[in-house]
Amino acid sequence: MNVLGLVNYWAFIFLMMVGFYILISQGNLIKKIVGLSVFQTSVFILYISMGKIRGGTAPILMEGDPVYSNPLPHVLILTAIVVGVATTALGLSLVVRIHEAYGTVEEDEIHDLDVAEAE
Amino acid sequence: MTVHLPVLQVVIPLLAAPLCALVRHGRIAWGIALATSWASFWIAVQLLRRVQAEGPISYALGGWAAPIGIEYRIDLVNAFVLIIVTAIGAVVIPYALKSVEQEIDAAKIPLFYAAFILCLTGLLGITVTGDVFNVFVFLEVSSLSAYALIGLGQDRRALTAAYQYLILGSIGATFIVIGIGMMYVMTGTLNMMDLSVLLAELGPNRTIAVAFGFLTVGISLKLALFPLHSWLPNAYTYAPSAVTAFIASTATKVAVYMLLRFFFTVFGWAFSFDVMQLDLVLLPLALIAIFSMSLVAIFQTNVKRMLAYSSVAQIGYIILGISMASVTGLTAGILHLFNHAMIKGALFMVLGCVMYRVGSVEIEAMRGLAKKMPWTMAAFVAGGFSLIGLPFTVGFISKWYLILGALERDGWQWWLVVGLVLTTSLMAVVYIWRVVEAAYFQDAPDEVGEPIREAPLAMLIPTWTLILANFYFGIDATFTSEVAGSAARALMGIAP
Prior knowledge:
heterodimer; A: 119 residues; B: mainly alpha
């Protein structure tokens, strides 16, 4: 079991936890989106790492019987990247609208405004 | 043509959505949405008939056979869920015309219908596909459009509700992708049927156990299982009326379907319940959800929020049925999936009518409303009966099967479950009664402006269609209980 050989997976876990922590701890709506992006991006590393085969080349048609990396996870992640972009864009546009409606992007200030309105 | 019905189920709405966005005219976009939703419903009915007659349908996308290509696989379980989703869509879109014209800017209406149809596409896609990664893609299609739809609510709190849902929903979806990735690492396949065979050969394994955990949490977030439900009340309360009616009766149901598909088909119920002991997690959470959320619902002053909390409790009933891991319990869960969609769809549509005329759904604002909007409030009472579970309504059928399932099990603790189901039904009486009391037995507040009239027929007819369906399937439950029963046996791997 070599720790270095699993460095990609350690990176995945680290990034995932960092993103998740930002999501939970930050009260600023934009910072939350940053956290969400880091969290989602970490999964890309997980998928891309699992497609890699030691000594494998790109999966293109060649003479003989070459060892090649599995292209499927990469394709899946292309889709996931698009989804991530869409989520970030939608999240940020909601933040813009929230800023227009409340004049702030801090969660606790928004909460105070809602409470004040309810009374 | 009929060979391609499984893919047309998804492709037709997928193509209609951009069309709605392009026409830039509210009524035309609505027409397209209407035609799409009815076509989808027709396809779903054809598919169910074929599945009932010929058994599961497998459709290879682009002619690439599974497991290399993406397979659309329809058996009784998802054919039934397709009926639920498309039927609600087909009823809500005619209803939406008036409601949306009042609640949403004219310029945004075509985009509203585009997002609505995209949401429908996503939900149908999740249901129809036999490929786990495809599930994730369609999940995001439906979720992203749902966030946008909820954000269109009139109140500014709709924006924060949509934002909160976006954050939690994305976490859930990411958890699901991680789970899928781990299954792929261990098996090298994404096809559900293939996965179920390979996972069974593999046997218990730590990576698969972790994948199972990620999927459980991710799907539970999406279906708003008790401690992960915090996004739901605000999202349902502040979304436009038509959106609440649609999402409340379909989105969480499709998430429950995902749970069934992953835990019964992909992992196999023996692994899920014997090895991973999923019932030890689901059962307590379901019971807490049923009790605590019914209690919270009693103290709400906003009726939409009250029904939102009640929805979390009702999801608890569905999960309770599933966690029994018996044919009767599972039948109860699948039946309640269908029945709750009809109950909550109808009740939220009633609230949309109230919103249309009164402009508020606070209990205060609904005082004395029964005199001014007799048909609307009668629909609320009828829907309320169904929610409580009085005989001759679908709510009764669900609870009947649920109690039968609990009585099948040995041990005193199952008697407590029966007791809890009956107690929480009484709690439903309390919160429905609060509205009925205000509407029927209190004097109306002094009116300012023009007098409140009955809701337009264009909204009343779809609402009453669902209400009557509540009674029809409550009196003659042969169709629903037979399909749900066979679906449950198929999921448990017992020959029908």
